[in-house]
Amino acid sequence: MRTSRVRMFFALAVVAGCMLLLCATEAASKTITRRWDGKPEFEQCTWDGNVEVADDGTVRLKESVLLQDEQGATHYNNAEALSNKVWAKKLFVIDDPRCEKAELFVFASAARVACNGTALSKHRGLPSTGWQVWEVPPELLQKGTNEFVMSGGGRLVIEHSLYPNRSAKSVDGGKTWDFDRMGFGGVENGEYLVRLRLKQYPRAGTITSQVFDLADLGGAIRPQIRFKAGLLATHTLPTSAGSIETEVRSGPSRIPDESWSAWGISAATSRHQWRQFAQWRAHLKTNDVTQTPALEEMRFTAEVEPQEVVRTGEAPRINVLELTEVGRQRRSHPFAYQPPGGRLRVLRERYRLEEVVSKGKTEMEKFALLRDWVRFTAPKGWDSGTTQWCPPWDALIILEMNNPPRALCMCTHFSAVFTQCALALGYTAREVILDHHCVAEIWSNRFGKWILMDTGNSADPTLNCHFEKDGVPLNALEIRRLWKAGRTAQIEVVYTPPRGRISGDKIENQCGFDVFRRFAIPFRNNHLVSPFPGELEQGVSQYYCDVYLWWEDEAVPVESPEYGKTSCRPADFYWTLNETGIDLQETAQAAVLQVSLDTVTPNFEKFLVSIDGGAWKDSPASFPWKLHGGENLLRARSANRFGAKGIESVARLEVQ
Q: How many distinct structural domains can be found in the chain?
C-alpha cells in the first residue's frame, strides 16, 4: 500500500557541483510556466458552493441558487399546526427572478400553498426526507419581495431567531399577520423551514489553486532561484456575462500564514515581491443570472534566475533514490477538530479505552475492537428507556444512559460514541449520515485513506462491521459507487470475529446498501465541546438541519436539493491527513540540503525526524541536512497532541 506513495529515481535527479555551478554562472534568466487547463487540474483546486468544474474542463458558476433564512437548527416539535384559520407566510427577497425552474421546499407539509396570490398545484414528497416540494412557475416570481402562504392543514417547523423576520402567522385566515408570535401558544419568534431553489446563476463564486512551488523545475531537489517577475493570465470563453478577477499571493513555505503576502490583484503582479511558494484565486462574477463567465485556462508565468552559488572544493554528485510523494488533497470547507483534554480525557480514562483496544496488533484490529465494544455498550439498542429521550452527539451522556437503557441509543449514538472514543485514542474520525442510517469514518494511516465503520446497523449487536474490496477497507463514496454500478458482490462485509466475512450480496437482517443513496458529513467532530452547530435529536425525525455537507454526483444537487451545502468534489469529503511532505533544496554548501516539512495533522504538535536509522528526534519544520558519501536516509513524520504518530515519509539519497 505504501509503495504507491513513493517515487523512485534511478537516473540522476539532480547533479550537484560543477554542473550546477556552471548553470548558476552561465545560464541566463528563464521562464517557467504553470498551467491549469482541464478538469483534472482544476479539480486539484478548492472552491466555494457557487462554483463548479464542468465536464468540458471549464470553471463556471453553478446553475442553482438556494434561498433560505434558516439552517434548521431547531427541534422537530417546535412547530406550527396549520388549519383553515391558522396560516403561515414566508417571504423571499429575489434580486432577479429570471430562472428556468423554481421549487419551494417545505418541511414538513402544507395542504395549500400560494405564490404571490396564485395557488400552486403540483407538489411531491422528496424520497425519505420529510420535505414537500412545490413547483413554482417562474412567471409568478417578481423582483423584490415574494410571498408564499401555506394553509388548509399541515405542519411547519420553526427555527428560533429574531432576523431577518420573514416568517409570519395568521390566526384569522390571512386577514392579519404577526411576525413575532408564532408556534404553539404564540411564544416563538423565528423562521419557518421553507426554502426556495432557483435554476439561475449566483452573482459570484471563487476558486482557489493549490499552493505551488516556483522552484520546481522538474528535479527532486529544488535549486535556489531568484524571482524577477511573474504574471497570472486568465483565458476565458467568450461571454457577455460578468467578469473573472484574479488574485495572487506568495510565501516562504507551503503553508499560508502571516508570513505570506496579502492577496493582490493580478494586474499588479509585475510589482509583486515573489517568494518560493505561490497561490492564486479567481472570482467569477456575473451581471446576468441567466449566464455565467467560464474560466478555460489559468496560466502562471514567472521569470526566474538561478542564484549564483559559491562553493569550495569538489562538489559531490547526488542521486535521489527514493522520495515519498504525499497526496496533499485539501478540502474546500473548514473543519473543527476536537482538541485534547477536558471531557475527552474523562471519556478515555473513565472507560479505559486503551485497554479496550490493547489486544489489537494492527490498526484495523484496534478499530474493530473499539467498534465492537461500542456496539455492546447498549446491546439492546433502539430502546428509549425510562426517559423516552434522544440524547445529543455526546459520548459521555450516551454511555451513562445505556445499560440499563434510560434513553434512546440507535445508530446515530453508536456512531457518535465510536467517533469520540476514537478521538480520545488519538485517531481522527467523524460521523457520516446516510439515508436513514448513521455510521462513522476514521482516518487510517495504514491505508492512507478514510474508511467506514458501521457500528450499529441492526438490533443484533454482532452485526457491526466494515466493508472491503480486494482487502482494502472502503469509505462511503466507494461503497455508494459500487452499489450504483450493481457491483455489491465485489464488496466483502467484515464482522468482528467469530462472525467472519460474507459477500455484499448476502447481506440480511441489517441495513442494506440502499442507505447509501446519499450521505453527508458534519463540518466538525468537536461535539464534546458544543452541541451546536447541530440538531439536538438528529435521526429521530426526518432530516432538516442544514449543517452537513451532502455528496452529489453532479454540481447541481439532485439527491439532496433541500440543502444549501452540497459538493461533487471527492476531496471535500476525503482530504488527506497525517502525511509529511519532504521538500529538498540546494544550499550554498555543496553537501548540504535544506529540508522543509509540511503536514495536515489535526491537533499537530511537532515533527519527528530520524537520520541514517538513528533515533527519532523532535525537529523544526525547516533544517539543513548535511550529507555524507554513500547512502543518506532521512525519515520524517508528524505527531499530534494526543501522542499519536503520523505516516512516515522517506528521502533516500546516494552521494558520490
A: 4
